Amino acid sequence: MHYSVWCFIAFISNVNIYFKGSPLIFEDLFLVNEATNIISKYLNTKLITNVLILIILFSIIFIIVVKISKNIKFKLFNLKYRYLNFILYTLFIYIYLLSMDKLYNYGKSITYVLSDFNLSDTYFKNGFLHSFYDSTTLFFSNNKNLDYDIDKILKIKNMLSENDYNFENPDVNIILIQLESIFDPLKLKDVKFSNDPLKNLRNLSKINESGEIIVPVLGGGTIQSEFEILTGINIKNLYTKMPYLNLLNNTQVESIPYILKNYGYATTAIHNYFSTFYNRTKAYENIGFETFIPIEAMTSREISQNFWYKDNILINEIITKIKNTPEKDFIFGVTVESHGPYNTLINGDIVVESNSLSEKDLIELQNYTNIIKHVDDFILNLINELNNTNEEYILILYGDHLPSLGENQSTFSSLTKEDLFKTPYLIIESNNKKMISIDKNTEIHAYEFLYEIFSDLNINSTIYHRFREIFKEDTKYNDYEKQLILDIKKQNIYDNSKFPYEISPIKIGNNTQIIEDININNDGVFIIGNGFTENSKILVNGKKIDTQYISTNCLKSINYIPNNEDVFIVILFSNKNSPLNISNKFIF
Known about the structure:
There is one protein chain. The chain is about 35% helix and about 15% strand. By secondary structure, the chain is an alpha/beta fold. It is globular.
């Protein structure tokens, strides 16, 4: 029976590779809620059929086992239980055929190979059983606060305090955009494209600061790159690969938003997807953002051909925020339009030809290139709108990871292993100021990226950025870094043993929902106000009533007749039905 269980888990790992571009690790068990957010975008007839077969087979097995005995002993030719044995072996063969190339590949590698970056490669070379078990032991061992040394922490603190910058406020808006799965397809060998899908990005890169950064993941794992960028922490040395779920759920971590908020910046995170995905609302609150604008708080929601929300809808939210805040803004945007999978037919003018790629890989690549052409247009549109604000800005764009293309990333077979973890970046400065200059001869990891930029602006960066710069030549560097990571939970690096930045409830959306009036006619009840979205729902005396979204200034209900002294409020709900934003009370 245990063979079938392991086969089933290996099958789930294959499904995970299809969904995320990476195999199943222990911490993926924390992602059940997140999976429900995007599962519908990956479903197809083959996958649904396989899942239904598995459910039916396991249901039959469960019923038979319960009816017969809990202590049943299975034998290969046990006639008494021949029907149950038949079902078990059928199930074993079925799952094995689906996942045999990932289950036990002992012949692929004699020595155990572990790659912190390319997990798919690790699982392929070492087999599922060893690799999954290793992810389990690493999780539990890394969650122990081993050998915490306060004396070393105090030494780090004193060294850091002696190397602060004299902060010079650049008096400029800073917009940082993480581009989903952006990769330059022209880097692929033996592949031809009828048009350049990144024409704008390429032309802008020629006349502005640009290059590549090294990211920690391939094909998926967006929040790992995001976390490294915002904190300066090397995710490899952290005790979790899911920091938004297992760390920032209840712990504050010093970050770029905290640093800039301390110097008077308004800090805002924007994402054209749901607020609950990867626990972003709580994570952003604990990482120092004052405002979060998810898709639930946006009024314009255009869907792309691959069924994700278009990136262009972020532009209006960014420009609105910049115009409406008297102080300078730090805005962090996370795009989603170019998210996989790439098996949905995309109508576009880019045709891809290759003799080295399979037909399936070629179709996926062509779909991908036509998708990122839209992202390329978004980049130019955003720059044009920023130029129209007449405000000084620095726009920083970078990719979170390469897309998941082909079986075990087979589309990228012509690239080196190093290139698999490099994504492009572009820095645009208003009025062509050229304050930022990054050495192209130095490899930059995601966790180092903002330090390189902030040092040119004379802005103090995070503890982890400054630690790396000061201690990089120290013989005890690795030990000190371990102490700094262990100290995250204790937050004891400061004299008063208290996290230095205050946390406040995060505001959701650019606009607060306001009820100004209630009108009644034969067509229904109309709530007049401001800040409403498709996720806004009317509550009367604490109970939700049917709600139709008319516009950002109007909601409608047709099945309720108000009574005197009824108390109306409007609540912005998340896709998981949790309240995000509550309006004023209006007594009818």
